[in-house]
Design brief:
This protein is about 0% helix and about 55% strand. It is globular, with a radius of gyration of 17 Å. It is mainly beta.
């Protein structure tokens, strides 16, 4: 490939995800540090590299939050990550944005201490959010989220084999039949799942 364009993001920002759609638009998720807290952001560039819009999970507040991954399907951008509830608690967060950058749906799971790490879109407008739960029996969490209804299905937890230490979800994938697969590792070197 031929190099197309380069863009410099906002100061004090860390990129967390990148996805392109079928027309060449590029979406970048990043965590922007403002006043000592992280704020989740998504920016869109067209195929020529021209800025289109910038948005976030809740860009008007100073919540400590971050997107860990983004995906694109059916004209929507899906972001997954966390919102910090307290110094020791992260809450899994999912959000969906339309083609103009408007947030069309979002949810913070308030009963799980953990975070989402991977967004996996299905062909019908839904997507899987996959991540890690760090309390109440550590394990991998997943939810089939439907932005059209604005609510997630039941959050599922799969205990990681081995000692009960917090797992880290490294990656996840779905097959042609929408079966979900994940790879995770315990925080101990003698256990992996």
């Amino acid at each position: 490939g031929t190099f197309q364009f380069t863009r410099i993001g906002e100061n004090n920002s860390i990129p967390t995800g990148l996805v392109a759609d079928s027309t060449g638009n590029v979406y970048v998720s990043y965590a922007l540090t403002v006043g000592g807290v992280q704020q989740s952001r998504v920016v869109k560039y067209n195929a020529s590299g021209t800025f289109q819009w910038r948005t976030g999970y809740n860009p008007t507040t100073t919540n400590d939050e971050s997107f860990a991954d983004i995906a694109f399907a059916n004209g929507r951008v899906f972001g997954v990550g966390y919102v910090r509830a307290s110094a020791s608690k992260l809450r899994p967060m999912v959000a969906a944005f339309d083609g103009t950058g408007a947030r069309v749906a979002a949810e913070v799971q308030t009963t799980i201490n953990g975070f989402c790490r991977k967004a996996l879109p299905l062909g019908d407008g839904r997507f899987y959010a996959v991540g890690t739960q760090s309390d109440s029996g550590p394990g991998v969490i997943s939810s089939l989220y439907n932005p059209a209804s604005g609510s997630a299905a039941v959050w599922n937890r799969k205990a990681t084999p081995g000692p009960t230490n917090t797992p880290v979800t490294f990656d996840a994938a779905i097959d042609n039949w929408n079966n979900l697969y994940y790879a995770a590792n315990s925080t101990r070197s003698d256990a992996s799942g």
